[in-house]
Backbone:
């Protein structure tokens, strides 16, 4: 249940890490519309859509520490109908957010005794989008493989033994008794960023990767599709495992599911190229008509106090990260390179900016970089364990992390825009 693999990676950009941890702590552990155990279960449901064992393991443990019912961990059939009704929006947001409509919102808000309040639903939507996007980061940076037994991730794991996260980051003894007393406290709340950063280890990036790039090229050619205005969109194929290691709760009892299938329904529902949609489906989402700055921010902040400010700080922080080395290699200004990545990600979800020339995307982003970005964004569970280490040799490790942070934030904002627009349409 430790988060140090994620925070080690984000620690290459400490200002962003600080804003990320503040938002996540508020979302999971501070006062809000949803009970603490439900928050962690919703996170489990979200992470399971992408078969992200790293996040599922984390939230299963925190669900139990928050006093959650262990029976719920047997699967969706064992949870209250109110939570189970969230499954449809979870599925759509994770894979094809453009399909969200005001009818989905109305259904959740008007189901007799199992109805959601608007505030609860906004909290849940932010949780879902956060965990879907974080799963992309986990797979993109190799944290998922690092967690697995014998896995080859991009990290050199810390020698922490049986320490819990608060011990690893704050050198603070945290006994099993203390964990039982503080079941509803965040494992992250006692960490000190300076101490965490002192423990970070520089990552060794392998220098040879021609074979992997050849395999990725084959995958691209087999699954390549043409996206409107953008060009190369490719799918990489894999056979991801859905196994989940048994977990132990603070009292020592083994819990958890033997696989992630029990937390999902309709597992075959996945990402589908927006450009290939039927003509009668939803139209292109134009940011000029509904944007985060002008519409989403005020709505989410009104229904879930202060979360809008924390999300906005995180979006602004990733936009302000320095990427001069990456941009220089592409022969452009840093802001131009970052906007190309951001708009390419939004384009894959059907979101367009009228003031942007999408021909720039093909000029700025190499084909293999676009393959990587699309894989991590749209089906992160297909990211192979070698991709982060052996991909784009010209990038420094911190630059690779920066691209994955852009993926995380652009994807999260895309999901929020669709969900909040549907809520706005319902309210109107």
Residues:
């Amino acid at each position: 249940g430790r988060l140090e693999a994620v925070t080690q990676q984000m620690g290459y950009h400490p200002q962003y890490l600080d804003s990320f941890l503040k938002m996540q702590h508020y979302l999971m552990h501070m006062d809000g519309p949803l009970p603490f155990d439900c928050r962690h279960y919703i996170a489990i449901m979200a992470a399971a859509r992408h078969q992200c064992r790293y996040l599922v393991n984390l939230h299963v443990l925190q669900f139990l520490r928050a006093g959650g019912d262990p029976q719920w961990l047997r699967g969706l059939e064992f949870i209250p109908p109110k939570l189970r009704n969230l499954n449809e929006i979870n599925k759509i947001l994770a894979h094809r957010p453009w399909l969200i409509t005001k009818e989905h919102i109305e259904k959740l808000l008007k189901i007799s005794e199992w109805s959601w309040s608007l505030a609860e639903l906004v909290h849940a939507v932010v949780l879902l989008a956060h965990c879907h996007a974080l799963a992309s980061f986990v797979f993109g940076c190799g944290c998922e493989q690092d967690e697995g037994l014998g896995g080859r991730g991009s990290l050199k794991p810390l020698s922490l033994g049986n320490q819990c996260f608060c011990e690893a980051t704050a050198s603070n003894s945290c006994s099993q008794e203390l964990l039982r007393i503080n079941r509803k406290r965040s494992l992250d709340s006692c960490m000190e960023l300076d101490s965490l950063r002192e423990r970070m280890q520089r990552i060794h990036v392998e220098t040879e990767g021609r074979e992997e790039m050849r395999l990725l090229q084959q995958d691209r050619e087999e699954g390549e599709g043409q996206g409107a205005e953008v060009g190369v969109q490719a799918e990489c194929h894999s056979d991801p495992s859905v196994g989940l290691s048994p977990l132990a709760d603070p009292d020592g009892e083994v819990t958890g599911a033997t696989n992630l299938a029990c937390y999902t329904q309709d597992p075959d529902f996945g990402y589908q190229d927006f450009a290939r949609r039927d003509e009668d489906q939803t139209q292109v989402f134009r940011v000029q008509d509904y944007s985060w700055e002008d519409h989403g921010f005020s709505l989410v902040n009104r229904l879930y106090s202060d979360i809008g400010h924390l999300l906005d700080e995180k979006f602004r922080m990733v936009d302000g990260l320095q990427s001069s080395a990456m941009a220089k290699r592409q022969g452009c200004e840093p802001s131009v390179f970052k906007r190309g990545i951001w708009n390419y990600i939004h384009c894959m979800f059907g979101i367009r900016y009228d003031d942007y020339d999408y021909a720039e995307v093909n000029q700025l982003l190499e084909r293999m970089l676009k393959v990587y970005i699309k894989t991590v964004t749209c089906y992160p569970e297909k990211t192979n364990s070698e991709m982060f280490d052996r991909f784009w040799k010209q990038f420094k490790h911190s630059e690779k992390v920066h691209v994955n942070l852009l993926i995380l934030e652009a994807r999260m904002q895309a999901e929020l825009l669709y969900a909040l627009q549907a809520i706005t349409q319902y309210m109107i």
